[in-house]
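Page 42, continued from yesterday. The earlier attempt failed because a stray header line got pasted into the input along with the sequence. Redoing it now with the clean sequence only.
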Amino acid sequence: MVSIFDIIGPVMVGPSSSHTAGATKLGNIARRVCTDKIRIVDFYLHGSFAETFRGHGTDRALLGGVLGMNAADERIRDSFKYARESGIEVAFHTADLGDVHPNTVKIVMSCADGSAGELTGASIGGGEVRVSSINNTHIEFSGQYPTIITVHRDKPGIVARVSSIFANHSVNIAFLKVFRQSRGSEASMVIETDQEVTRSMLDEIASVPEIVKIMFVDV
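This time it went through. Structure tokens are written below.
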């Protein structure tokens, strides 16, 4: 079944849903990885992104997303100006990121508190994206649903404890995936939900002793 959204595409500023709407969404997700205000951001562009990013406005769209703009925001055209006014240093690089989607970008950010954040993702068409890595940890999610990402100590019962919080709040889990480097080390959960996630739910999850870090994405 084809929806009207599939035919006309997303509402956006720019010529291409992959190079504008998807790029803005990736930038918007990436900014949530930083724990403080972004001071420096480097974009490493692969494949088609690397070849056409200036002509298609991908650079402005990615930066606009990092600044918190959505794909329909007219300010995207002037995103470099807004970045300068915010004191953010910006650089774009072409790179070979390996066997990945041609519209892939790696976004590396330095935050005001001295921490760093990193995201790799692809714009896969129609304004949709696929995130494949956060802070060098392999994960997978689309950004289509409210999404909670945790970093936690890999111990028995953590998934059940977090899942019970969703059940207690009558929030249905659409997708749940667990990723880890090795047994007993740190692991990550990606939880995509059918309903909105409240601040109190996030606080409850963060209070689980084994949870090291939590990030919420709702683009």
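Notes: The first helix runs from residue 4 to 8.
Reminder to self: strip header lines before submitting.
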